[in-house]
Specification:
Blueprint lengths: L1 H48 L4 H17 L43
């Protein structure tokens, strides 16, 4: 009698497992079919309107921007070395000096009255 209960329990467990696998496969195939239909609809819409889909435009703009920085150039700089000083001039050391405020304030904690 115990053998019969174990057999029925194992068969039901296997049936539930196969049902869950089948439901998961149907769900996954439904998601893939939905994505495929969205891609086809986007392609048809782009063919009818004569425009590229927005995602392709965005990806191509990002690719152009990354290519610009990959070549070592920055916008507005003619040099190919981004660490070189602008204009190719030599670096000159200068004497540091204190800059005072226009209000007449001599620094933190000092009041000029």
């Amino acid at each position: 009698m115990n053998f019969l209960f174990d057999f029925v329990a194992g068969a039901l467990r296997g049936l539930v497992r196969l049902t869950m696998i089948a439901l998961g496969a149907v769900f996954l195939l439904g998601l893939l079919l939905t994505a495929l239909l969205a891609v086809v609809a986007t392609i048809v819409w782009s063919l009818l309107t004569g425009r590229k889909p927005a995602i392709f435009t965005v990806v191509s703009r990002f690719r152009q921007a990354s290519q610009q920085f990959r070549n070592g150039g920055w916008p507005g700089h003619a040099t190919s070395n981004p660490r070189a000083p602008p204009g190719g001039a030599d670096v000159v050391d200068v004497q540091a000096h204190e800059v005072r405020d226009a209000i007449g304030h001599d620094g933190p904690g000092k009041d000029s009255v």
